Amino acid sequence: MNPQAATAVIDHAGSPESSAETGMASDRREQILLEQLRAGLPGAFEQLVESQAARLINLAYRLVGNRAEAEEIAQEGFLRLHRSLDRFRGDCSLSSYLYRIVSRLAIDHLRREKLRRKLFFFRRHEDEVDPLEVTADPGASPRDELQAKETGQRLLAALDGLSARQRAVFVLRHQEGLPLKEIAAMLKLEEGTVKAHLYRAVRALRAELEDLQEDRS
Amino acid sequence: MKGMGKKHCRKEDLLLYYYGELDGQRCRELADHLESCASCRNEWRQLQRTLDGVPSPTIEMAPSETSRFAARVAARAQRPGRGRLWLWGGAVTATVVLALSLIARPPGMLPSRDNKLVADAAIAQELELLQNMELLEELDLLQDLEGQG
Question: Which ipTM did the prediction report?
Fold first, then answer.
């Protein structure tokens, strides 16, 4: 197995036995929480938000590249779940459902943003929080930090150049480690279309980051 | 990809290979090919280097931050149908404004009978009628000819 796939398995599973147990416990917890939510138990919704917030905010952040917007999108995702609780049939887990809502909201947001920028020549503010500052490794040397910052900025610029769907597919596959089949179901696309989006996204990113790679090799 | 021994790898396949998305047989064939083809191996290494170097920005949220966020969202969820009220309010306001502006419109705002556009439309209608009449006349003529035949 290639390194990326191996990492994804380790991240998502750990050892097979412990992962099965953890998965069952998590499903049971989610089921109880869902029943409590439907029964209108005070605090149940807040508990659900608290358990999923970090994951969903990070997903939205990777998709849109801005923390405030990511929090807004995650919040809207939770509110939509709250409004549709009566209609939630439980075909998938609550966390998958939320993941799906947030991904679609982020795609809509990216499309609107693109249009807004096109119409008003709008640019993101330079003083926004840099993603690499959020994740900066405390043990990194100043040179490493500078390189990481440059890579992060170039990556953001490259991601901004992609279509909303290409960006979503790349983030969901590369950064979230989701299988292409799951991404296709999540975005209601054919698997072949998802593969094409991923290929185009990677081609564009490689073109954008090529000189950076050459400088460092 | 069968018998790809001498053919170079498709870039799409290399990408799927990187993400572990190639099925067993194709995956093995590609791995074998990479061992024997320097050009594809070079392409594969470049792809690996680029993708391995793509960072995954992560927001580390302190428990207090998460709690604050959860409380804020829960409070928003308790506000009954505010979004829809806004929507309905907006729609009603827009309708009232439109109705008032139509009632209080200055004379000449709406096209009158003399308006050129209306006149053009009337001419077009007349022309259409004329064409239809001509068609009917032709039809009569055809029927006459048929009767004669």
Answer: 0.75
